[in-house]
Amino acid sequence: MKRTLLAAAALMAFAGVASAQSSVNIGGILDVAARSVSNPGGALKTLSPDGLQTSRFIVRGVEDIGGGMRASFWLEGAVSVDSGGGASGGAPGATGGGHTWQRRSTVSLSGSFGEIRLGRDYTSTFWTHVLFDPFNLAGVANQANLMTSTKMATPVNSGGTTLLRANNMIGYFLPGNLGGIYGQFNVAAGEGVTGNKYIGGRLGYAKGPLNVAFAYGVTDKTGTMTDDMKAWNLGGSYDLGFMRVLGQYHNYSSGGRTLKNAMLGAVVPVGASSFKASYSRSGDFRAATQLGLGYQYDLSKRTALYTTYSRVKNKAGADFTASGSGRAIAATGAGSTGFTSTGYEAGVRHSF
Amino acid sequence: MKRTLLAAAALMAFAGVASAQSSVNIGGILDVAARSVSNPGGALKTLSPDGLQTSRFIVRGVEDIGGGMRASFWLEGAVSVDSGGGASGGAPGATGGGHTWQRRSTVSLSGSFGEIRLGRDYTSTFWTHVLFDPFNLAGVANQANLMTSTKMATPVNSGGTTLLRANNMIGYFLPGNLGGIYGQFNVAAGEGVTGNKYIGGRLGYAKGPLNVAFAYGVTDKTGTMTDDMKAWNLGGSYDLGFMRVLGQYHNYSSGGRTLKNAMLGAVVPVGASSFKASYSRSGDFRAATQLGLGYQYDLSKRTALYTTYSRVKNKAGADFTASGSGRAIAATGAGSTGFTSTGYEAGVRHSF
Amino acid sequence: MKRTLLAAAALMAFAGVASAQSSVNIGGILDVAARSVSNPGGALKTLSPDGLQTSRFIVRGVEDIGGGMRASFWLEGAVSVDSGGGASGGAPGATGGGHTWQRRSTVSLSGSFGEIRLGRDYTSTFWTHVLFDPFNLAGVANQANLMTSTKMATPVNSGGTTLLRANNMIGYFLPGNLGGIYGQFNVAAGEGVTGNKYIGGRLGYAKGPLNVAFAYGVTDKTGTMTDDMKAWNLGGSYDLGFMRVLGQYHNYSSGGRTLKNAMLGAVVPVGASSFKASYSRSGDFRAATQLGLGYQYDLSKRTALYTTYSRVKNKAGADFTASGSGRAIAATGAGSTGFTSTGYEAGVRHSF
């Protein structure tokens, strides 16, 4: 929930002047959990951010410029609640130093034609990861746990900077009145920087209980990259009323290698409670599976308590862990026979 | 003074909707002074931040979640007014690069049981330093001037990261209705980082003119630390009407060595003016004394002019200086016979 | 346009309390453009910030402290819309990591005597650059393109940190009621840092269609500097109604060398459109000229579309480019015979 700092409204109530179209909103999410992750080499207890949703600080606004047109801006940066730091927003777990606007910094013009958006933004291929994951791509049962590996040099790492977001992006978004069809198209200027150049699109359909989307993107070979990285994915959810089922499939390929990841999940709401589960599989030649179980209790629309359990099983040679976005424990002792990593956390998410 | 950006209020006045419980507050303190510090090696004139109070930028809010419960958040970072930089909040004088939320970043749940607070926060043993110092632990007469020394490798430095604040903290605070008794208890996860693991508590009593508090904390031996650091302190103040007297005592020990610091102070308000004095003594084997004299004139509740003088006398081997949180001048020429460091500043503090 | 988050107004409308003098304002400018810069070595296409105006995020406020006096503060940092980073504010094109308040962080007391301002602020000699440039010292036709050169070690670079702003500054500004006369005087404490110590002043006259200003400043020889840097400049504009003409002249000298830059420009408003042109010349021994042409269309007072063209002609030995504040392309291939650099961009500027 974003608080609308409606200057115009305040002034109007006060002095009968100003226009109602202008507003600056300040909002965000702060999420922090007590977490324990166990690998063969040992266990690490942490207070970590982002168990249920990724923490963020947002300043945004919309201007009505007439003729059905709007200009708007969006500045959003990460917040590491455990340390007071910001995070790059690029790499999961990066809790660098200062505050940035690297989660999103965009200026948009929108109207009946849709929206044109300029700046740093999410790539088209990112959205499937988070929107069709019962765990919101956060915490120990994060669907992306099966994508972050020290042994997986290619293909995903080769397009690292465009996995979630890209700098220098021009985006076009379809208008909202197409009978359930939605979509976007993105181009990011490479500016001569390795792994920066991206082109991608996304098309989806959301009506009634159904929501499905397909996305495709290419990160251009630049600098030290030896081959383009091609990514496509498919995600969907269906609301049965008593339960929402979700699924997603990803295919990342580069240099003759392919990473295939799949996930099935479900969310069962019971009053203010939600029960969640997901099962993920990495189809890389270094394969692993992840089971996630979660419980969420909404104290209000803005504030929730939650607890999550996750178990990652690695086949020989793989080293995926259930570390989420907190401080990681190295999977030492991960030999040639595979190993299991388990994560557990309990926390609170507050949005403002 | 924090400005309440009461979106709810604005909307209610405007359109008769929304609830009154939600708010985001933006506030802070900006404090800057012309300062001169003289050591045997020379004098340094600076424009320095934080002569009367530490500069900060705060975003915070409270949500009423019903049943007498509240959820709240607090994001606070340092501001180096002289350079436009942020500061780590950990080390005095660190004016690093960018803005952070390292002064405090917490999420809380509170009710009749008290408050549970998660994130980066002040340690229990910190509060005595600032609350019972006429100079608010800031400026050239800062009580902590006698704690920062290049020659004092142990015991204080050994627990450096927990002296003021700690990452990864879980805190419990007593409710406010215990007849004057207040207190808190804190545990910080070490996460395998040297000097990060902390456990501490604080108990106080404030009623009428009296306020006293005792705190104890242990920074666990980790990584390169060879011994735990134990800290305890006692502080108090009594308001005689025409004058408020204050005092504090600190005992930091580690590896067989102990640092004992004591301070006595007074504040005499006369209309919009306040006259202040403090005398501090470091009982470390490298001992020093500090005399602080100050005058503050309140232009309003939010804005004050002030001037402060400080004189630090070092015995042989000690190198404490009156440098406060500004750019430091090295105490070159500090030989085996001891030396005197003097500081003087005049500035303005504005809170918003 | 800054949004006034008038807490006082909101509260007054809501509950009839609080005073009307207090306010915190949040505002800024976000500007981003698709840009292409061509040098002999090649062309670089970028999405770059700051084509029409420099992007920024501002928090500021004013307090009426009675007796005609006001206390105020101003925190302003750069925003790299293309990457979500902040910028140092010192060097054009620096898109460093995190958000800072390095564009300006000041506390002021003002009244009928004028204004006293403390903190990091613009130097007196900066203002001529931006106020009398049709392109606002931004984008590919930025007047300062002829000042940034890898081959121009002195004199400008020798006073680099004070070219735009200075840390540790005490400033005095004349009051606004002197019949059109305006001015300021600034002193920045060096604090022993090379190139940090500055003293300067500015005097101007603005009445009816006329605005002229003269500024002079000295950056003291410190540390590795071998000589003081002296700067003076003169700027003016005259509004003919159908057209505004502008001009500026700069003289930077240090160590026996002098850089002389001159610019003539014009802005022709036609309804919501503005046509702009400027011609600049660097009188350094490594000389160059720049021609800038621009078109701006105001969608509203806050939002504008624009496009700009620029051509820099270098004589033998010079390497000035039309790179503005975006990612630069090296002028490889710039031989002994001189070369031409061209820039083109189209973008949007949104203020809030």
Brief summary:
The first copy, chain A, has 352 residues and is mainly beta. Chain A has a single domain, classed as Porin, CATH 2.40.160.10.
Describe the model.
Three copies of one chain form a homotrimer. Chain A has one domain (24-351): Porin. Chain A is globular. The first copy, chain A, has two helices and 18 strands. A 16-stranded antiparallel β-barrel of chain A has the order 2-4-5-6-7-8-9-10-11-12-13-14-15-16-17-18. Mean pLDDT of chain A is 86; it is low at 1-21 and 88-95. In chain A, 4% of the residues lie in helices and 52% in strands. Chain A is mainly beta and 352 residues long. The longest helix of chain A has 9 residues, at 7-15. Chains in contact: A-B, A-C, B-C. The A-C interface holds A 5, 7-8, 10-11, 13-15, 22-24, 26, 59, 61, 63, 65-66, 69, 71-73, 75, 77, 86, 89, 96-107, 109, 118-120, 167-170, 188-189, 191-192 and C 1, 3-6, 9-10, 12-13, 26-27, 30-32, 34, 44-47, 57, 79-86, 97-100, 299-300, 302-303, 327, 347-348, 350, 352.
